[in-house]
Amino acid sequence: EVQLVESGGRLVQAGGSLRLSCVASGFSFDDYAMGWFRQAPGKEREGVSCISSHEDSSYYAESVKGRFTISSDSAKNTVYLQMDSLKPEDTGVYYCAAYGGYGLGYLRCLRGSPDFGSWGQGTQVTVTS
Fold it and tell me: 16, 37, 77, 89: least surrounded by Cβ within 10 Å?
């Protein structure tokens, strides 16, 4: 059974930093691309960042480029999202998801579903001004 468990979300002031973690189980981590997505209240879910170790590629939404860094540790089956210089507009529920195909690409990362078929329960990030 595929499981993705996010953690690390909390309330933080603008300008602060957070590191989100997502522990994966139930599939071959090295063969999957992983992504972080977020959903703000009243808005649609959007792609934030994705990484594919087997394709040696990573992608970022324009709104987070230069502030967020995605990384993965295959020994721990974990993908991280380091978030620096946080802004109130970064507030939302952050989800981790897995994509088992090839050809990750920027657009597929932004889109998320249906390519990313396995999702975690999310972790809340709140950035106060």
Answer: 89
Which two structure tokens, joined as six digits, stand for 100?
């088992």
Scored b (16 or more CB within 10 A) or e, 74-102 reads eeebbbbbebeebeeebbbbbbbbbbeee
HSE at residue 27, side-chain half, CA atoms within 13 A, is 21
Are the CB atoms for 100 and 2 separated by under 8 Å?
no
Which two tokens mark 42? 């009243």
